[in-house]
């Protein structure tokens, strides 16, 4: 739960805030639970008559999950006790609006509390942000919600212990990962509203960018994917700062590293390395083992490396070329005839026989050379056929995640488990030993680094103890595997809807049929036609198949009849009968 507040100045009136709260166009529904817009207007009028600076305090209650009516009233009561206003006289409005990535949290509440109560005492506004966080964390514990890490989490825990609520403080402490690391928001409320006026929802944009991180195999691919979202990266005014702007009007949307959920220095290093022609791969290699993962220590997980562009292979499904009769590593010129030597002691008949044998050996060697030369020529032409098709369609983007295993949630989960489980087990083993604080910290660092390399976002699992709780660990493996697969399937569907890809897939289907037919029949003439006119060659192949089809069906029916006659033989004697 996130609770925020803003004191509203009486002299400015309530028109702007009331338009948003009571008539906001971005909401699916607006429900007035207590009070009305008239009550807010009356409070502003009274504040101006009394020459007060502030009229009301506008609270916004945004729970991580939808709360019941009773839980909402309990939250309001806690705010009233903390800041000193009357909960019965305040105005409460509920908004329903879908939130990116959180289908069970589509409700939030607006609360207007009079700045001056009936006794003439002003609302207690000292250290409001810290005290609001204290109520937020307390409500999360009471309602059983995930613990959100706030900016003042350490101060909140200390204050709760001072108030005698050690059980709540201990629970928050135990369920807050990286408690002492600073919190950075992806964007501020002002940036969010500014982006909405430009037609950009920063919440949905952040979710889309996170999907890019999951589906991209390199940093360059992740950056290039921003163009499909209508945004791009530019250098900020400060050093090592990069921002994301709207492509339509070049307006600032937010900090690039925060929207990508990366550290500022890490993002700057990767982006600058990319500008210098270097790239960083994200995906783990298929052969990487858990032992390699244990070598990841320190913060430098994704080190820049020169970009290696693999050789484009559009014909991944085409079978490997095999040439019968040609030994591996041998050439046509290696073939030599075996000759028999003659001596003076031989008779004339023996010498004539040897001459005949040598001539026969020469003839056989010549035939073998010609045969192998034809086979080699056939193989070279097949390779040329593949190369010509490759060049024709080289403009088509590479198929993303073409391996079905990369889109199989079971395979993805098994791969992640094979990396994380040994590191997690090693941490538990080291923790059980005596006097090994450094080894335990190193094992913990290796586990956290592996999580980071696999792009496990701790914000998604704040209330889960994936390090010590086995069921939480297994839940995270399943959840992130589903997220990986969903993003990859979406990227593959987007690739398949491209018009050039549709044309390529149709041409590739025809090419595979022609290629397999030529390799099966060894039809050299059809292969030569393919090199000069592929369309004509494909038509010729279809005509030949149409002629061969009835003959094939006739042979199959004959074989079936033979099989039936064999079964009818009473003595079990195999006597084929032809019809």
Briefly say what this structure is.
By secondary structure, the chain is of the alpha+beta class.
Structural commentary:
The protein has helices spanning 15-23, 37-49, 69-83, 128-143, 153-162, 166-174, 189-197, 202-215, 219-224, 256-259, 264-275, 290-293, 348-392, 409-432, 437-453, 470-496, 499-521, 524-532, 534-568, and strands at 2-9, 29-34, 54-62, 91-96, 107-114, 231-235, 242-246, 252-255, 278-279, 305-306. With 579 residues, the protein is an alpha+beta fold. Among the domains are: 2-174, BirA Bifunctional Protein, domain 2 (2-Layer Sandwich), CATH 3.30.930; 189-282, no CATH class. The strands form three sheets. Strands 1-3-5-4-2 form a five-stranded antiparallel β-sheet, with helices on both faces. Strands 6-7-8 form a three-stranded antiparallel β-sheet. α3 runs antiparallel to α4 (128-143). The protein is elongated, with a radius of gyration of 37 Å.
Biggest beta sheet attributes: 5 strands, antiparallel
For the record, the CATH architecture of the domain at 2-174 stands as: 2-Layer Sandwich
CATH T-level fold name of the domain at 2-174? BirA Bifunctional Protein, domain 2
Fraction of residues in helix: 40-55%
Please provide the ordered H/E string of secondary-structure elements. Answer: EHEHEHEEHHHHHHEEEHHEHEHHHHHHH
Calculate the terminal CA-CA distance, rounded to whole Å: 83 Å
Q: Strand order across the biggest sheet?
A: 1-3-5-4-2
Structural Rg: 37 Å
Can you tell me the CATH class of the domain at 2-174?
A: Alpha Beta
The class by helix and strand makeup works out as: alpha+beta
The amount of beta strand, in percent, is 5-15%
Shape: elongated
DSSP summary: helix tally: 19
Tell me, rounded to a whole number, the average pLDDT. 77
**In terms of per-residue confidence, which ranges show pLDDT below 50 for 5 or more consecutive residues?**
283-330
Number of beta-strand segments: 10
